[in-house]
C-alpha cells in the first residue's frame, strides 16, 4: 500500500465521523522504484491532505517532506521537491502492517501490500 | 478535411464512438452537443467498412488510426467510382496541388490492392495496378518500407455476400494512406496467453476499446471498482495511464493463484507499470475520506450483472433479510474474521457506481461501463441508468446470446457533485437496505436469462418472429 492510497482512506465504521487519517502501523516497508511522471504528481498534489501525508511518511521511515504544504509555485519550479513527493507517494510500500482508526482503534490489516477495508457485521 | 476511414468488420456498434472518443483525445475541436461529421459512400449501407469522416488534420487521423482497435486505416481519398473509367476521371480531377508532392522522384511508394467480397489472383491485382499509369508516379517502388503507401480498394458486388448486406453496386476507392492500425497489439495481449485469468476477465479487444472510450492516456488516473484480475486496467496501463483497482473478493486481488499468478504478474507479463493501488473494499460502503472528490480521470469497469457472477456487498445474507440481528464478533476472533457478504442487486450496484463516479471523477471525466439488457424487450425502450451529473455520449451493443446483450455506456461528467446529490444518494442507500428483498427480486436479470422458454411463445411461423438485428450481428460483430 502506498501513501497516495493511505491519503484517500478513512475508517467508515457506522457512527465514526472523523476516521481520517488512519495511523500507520508499519510492519514491513519496502521501496520500489517507479518511473517519474511530473504531470501526474502535480495533478495529485492538489488532492492531497498534506499533514496526513507527512505523518504517514514519517511512520514509514521517510522524513524528507516539509511540514507545511508548499504553494503551487514550488511545484512548477522545484523539481527536487517533486521528486521527493514522487518518492513519498509512489515508491514507499507498506507490505505488511495495519491502518488504525484514530477514534476506535480498529485495525484494518495490510497484507501483501493490500489493505483490507471490509467492515465486520456489527460495524455496518 | 474528409478522410476515408476503413473499419474492420467487427463490433459494428463500437466503431464510431471509438473514433469520436479518440478524435477528442487527440485534439479535435468538437462543439458541446455535436459529434464528428460522417458520410457514407454512395449506395453503401451503414454496416459497410467504408466511411468518410471529417477531421481537421492528417496528424489527428494518423493518431486515431494508430491507437484504434477497429479502424484498419485512414486514407486521403484521391478518387472513387463504380468502374475503372469513373475512377480515372475522379483521380484526374483531384487537384495536382494535393497529389504531386507525394509522387516526387526522390520518394518511394507502393500500391496495394485490397478487395472486399472476393479474392483476386496475383495477375488480376497486377492488371489493376497497371491501369493506374495515368497517375504520374515518379519515385521508385519500395515494397517493404515506402515513404508513401497507396491503396486501391474494391468492394465487389454480389448477391450472396457471406450473410452480409448484399452489395448493390461495385465501388472502387483509391487513396493515400494517412494512418494505419497497430496490428501487434491484440496478438500480444490476447487472453489465452495471459498469466492470471478469471471467469469474467475482459477480452483484450474489448478492454482496449473501453480504454479508448475513456480516453486513457499518460498522466491520467484510471480506476476500476470491480478490478478482479485486472484485465481492464492492463489495457489502460498499456495506453500510459496510472491505474488503481478495488474488489470485495480478497482472494482475487491479494492472493491470486500463487506468487507468480496474480494481478501484479499480469502487469509484469507485459512490462507495464504496476497499479498505484489495489484494495479490498465494498463499493456499497467505501472507505473514502470525506472531502475526497474529483480524483479520477476515468472510471472503467464491468460490474457484476448477476447472470454468471453475482455482486456482493457487506452484511450477511441473513442480516440483510432481517432473519438475524447484526451480531458482534467476539474480540478474540476479530483478527481472522472474514466478514460475511450478501447479495448485491444490479440496480443497487449501478446506483452506487454512478454515485461513486459523480463524486470521484474530475469534471469532464468519463465513466465507461457495461450494462446488461434483455433482448426480447417487445415495445418500450430500454432504460439506461441516469444521473444528474452525467451526460450519456455513447451506447454500443454487444450481443451475448439470443436472450441478452450488454451495452457499453460512456458517460461524461458535466455537473459538479453537490450536497443535494450526496443527500439523495444517502436516502437511496437507506431505501435499498430497508427493502432488501424487493430489490433483489426486481433488480436482477438472472432469472430472465435462464428461465426456460415458455412454449406458448414459440412461433410456428418463422416470419412472425422479427429479429431487429441482421443475421451477421453476433458476439464479435
TrEMBL record, chain A:
InterPro entries: Trm112 (IPR039127), Trm112-like (IPR005651). Transmembrane segments: none annotated. Pfam families: Trm112p. Belongs to the TRM112 family. PANTHER family: MULTIFUNCTIONAL METHYLTRANSFERASE SUBUNIT TRM112-LIKE PROTEIN, UPF0315 PROTEIN-RELATED. This is Multifunctional methyltransferase subunit TRM112-like protein At1g22270. It comes from Camelina sativa (False flax). The lineage of its organism: Eukaryota, Viridiplantae, Streptophyta, Embryophyta, Tracheophyta.
TrEMBL record, chain B:
Its EC number is 2.1.1.214. Residues 3-183 form the tRNA (guanine(10)-N(2))-methyltransferase TRMT11 N-terminal domain. The keyword Chloroplast does not apply. InterPro entries: DNA_methylase_N6_adenine_CS, RlmKL-like_Mtase, SAM-dependent_MTases_sf, TRMT11, TRMT11_N. It comes from the Eukaryota. It is an enzyme of class 2 (transferase). Its main location: cytoplasm. Belongs to the class I-like SAM-binding methyltransferase superfamily. TRM11 methyltransferase family. The keyword Chloroplast does not apply. It holds the Pfam family UPF0020. Keywords: Cytoplasm, Methyltransferase, RNA-binding, S-adenosyl-L-methionine, Transferase, tRNA processing, tRNA-binding. The gene is LOC104790268. Residues 193-314 form the Ribosomal RNA large subunit methyltransferase K/L-like methyltransferase domain. Gene3D superfamilies: Vaccinia Virus protein VP39. It is found in: Cytoplasm. PROSITE patterns: N6_MTASE, SAM_MT_TRM11. This is tRNA (guanine(10)-N(2))-methyltransferase.
Amino acid at each position: 500500500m502506498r501513501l497516495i492510497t493511505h491519503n484517500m482512506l478513512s475508517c467508515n465504521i457506522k457512527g465514526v465521523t472523523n476516521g481520517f487519517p488512519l495511523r500507520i502501523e508499519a510492519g514491513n516497508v519496502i521501496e520500489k522504484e517507479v518511473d517519474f511522471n511530473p504531470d501526474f504528481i502535480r495533478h495529485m498534489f492538489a488532492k492531497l491532505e498534506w499533514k496526513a501525508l507527512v505523518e504517514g511518511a514519517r511512520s514509514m521511515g521517510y522524513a524528507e517532506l516539509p511540514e507545511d504544504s508548499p504553494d503551487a509555485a514550488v511545484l512548477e519550479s522545484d523539481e527536487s521537491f517533486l521528486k521527493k513527493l514522487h518518492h513519498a507517494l509512489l515508491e514507499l510500500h507498506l507490505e505488511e502492517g495495519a491502518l488504525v482508526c484514530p477514534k476506535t482503534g480498529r485495525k484494518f490489516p495490510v497484507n501483501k501490500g493490500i489493505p483490507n477495508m471490509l467492515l465486520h457485521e456489527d460495524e455496518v | 478535411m474528409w478522410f476515408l476511414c476503413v473499419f474492420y468488420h467487427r463490433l459494428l456498434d463500437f466503431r464510431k464512438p471509438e473514433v469520436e472518443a479518440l478524435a477528442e483525445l487527440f485534439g479535435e475541436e468538437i462543439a458541446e452537443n455535436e459529434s464528428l461529421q460522417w458520410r457514407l459512400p454512395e449506395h453503401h449501407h451503414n454496416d459497410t467498412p467504408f466511411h468518410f469522416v471529417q477531421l481537421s488534420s492528417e496528424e489527428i487521423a494518423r493518431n486515431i488510426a494508430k491507437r484504434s482497435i477497429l479502424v484498419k486505416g485512414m486514407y486521403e481519398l484521391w478518387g472513387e467510382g463504380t468502374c475503372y473509367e469513373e475512377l480515372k476521371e475522379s483521380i484526374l480531377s483531384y487537384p495536382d496541388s494535393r497529389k504531386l508532392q507525394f509522387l516526387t522522384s526522390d520518394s518511394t511508394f507502393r500500391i496495394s490492392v485490397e478487395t472486399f467480397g472476393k479474392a483476386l489472383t496475383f495477375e488480376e491485382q497486377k492488371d489493376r495496378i497497371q491501369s493506374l499509369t495515368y497517375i504520374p508516379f515518379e519515385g521508385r517502388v519500395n515494397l517493404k518500407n515506402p515513404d508513401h503507401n497507396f491503396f486501391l480498394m474494391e468492394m465487389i458486388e454480389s448477391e450472396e455476400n457471406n450473410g452480409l448486406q448484399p452489395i448493390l453496386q461495385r465501388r472502387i476507392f483509391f487513396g493515400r494512406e494517412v494512418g494505419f492500425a497497430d496490428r501487434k497489439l491484440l496478438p500480444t495481449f490476447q487472453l489465452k496467453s495471459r498469466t492470471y485469468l478469471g471467469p469474467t476477465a475482459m477480452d483484450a479487444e474489448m478492454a482496449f476499446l473501453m480504454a479508448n472510450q475513456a480516453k486513457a492516456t499518460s498522466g491520467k488516473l484510471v480506476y476500476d471498482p470491480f478490478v478482479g484480475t485486472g484485465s481492464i486496467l492492463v489495457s489502460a496501463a498499456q495506453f500510459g495511464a496510472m491505474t488503481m483497482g478495488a474488489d470485495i473478493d480478497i482472494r482475487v486481488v491479494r492472493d491470486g493463484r500463487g506468487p507468480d499468478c496474480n494481478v501484479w504478474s499480469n502487469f509484469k507479463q507485459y512490462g507495464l507499470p504496476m497499479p498505484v493501488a489495489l484494495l479490498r473494499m465494498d463499493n456499497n460502503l467505501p472507505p473514502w475520506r470525506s472531502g475526497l472528490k474529483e480524483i479520477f480521470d476515468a472510471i472503467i469497469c464491468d460490474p457484476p450483472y448477476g447472470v454468471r457472477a453475482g455482486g456482493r456487498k457487506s452484511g450477511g445474507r441473513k442480516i440483510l433479510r432481517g432473519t438475524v440481528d447484526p451480531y458482534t464478533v467476539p474480540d478474540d476472533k476479530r483478527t481472522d474474521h472474514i466478514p460475511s457478504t450478501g447479495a448485491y442487486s444490479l440496480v443497487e450496484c449501478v446506483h452506487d457506481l454512478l454515485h461513486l463516479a459523480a463524486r470521484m471523477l474530475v469534471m469532464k471525466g468519463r465513466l465507461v461501463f457495461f450494462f446488461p439488457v434483455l433482448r426480447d424487450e417487445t415495445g418500450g425502450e430500454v432504460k439506461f441508468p441516469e444521473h444528474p451529473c452525467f451526460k450519456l455520449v455513447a451506447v454500443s451493443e454487444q450481443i451475448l446470446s439470443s436472450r441478452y446483450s450488454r451495452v457499453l455506456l460512456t458517460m461524461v461528467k458535466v455537473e459538479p457533485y453537490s450536497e443535494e446529490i450526496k443527500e439523495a444518494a444517502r436516502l437511496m442507500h437507506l431505501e435499498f437496505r430497508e427493502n432488501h428483498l424487493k430489490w433483489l427480486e426486481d433488480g436482477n436479470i438472472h432469472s430472465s436469462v435462464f428461465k426456460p422458454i415458455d412454449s406458448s411463445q414459440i412461433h410456428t411461423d418463422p416470419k412472425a418472429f422479427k429479429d431487429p438485428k441482421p443475421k451477421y450481428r453476433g458476439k464479435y460483430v
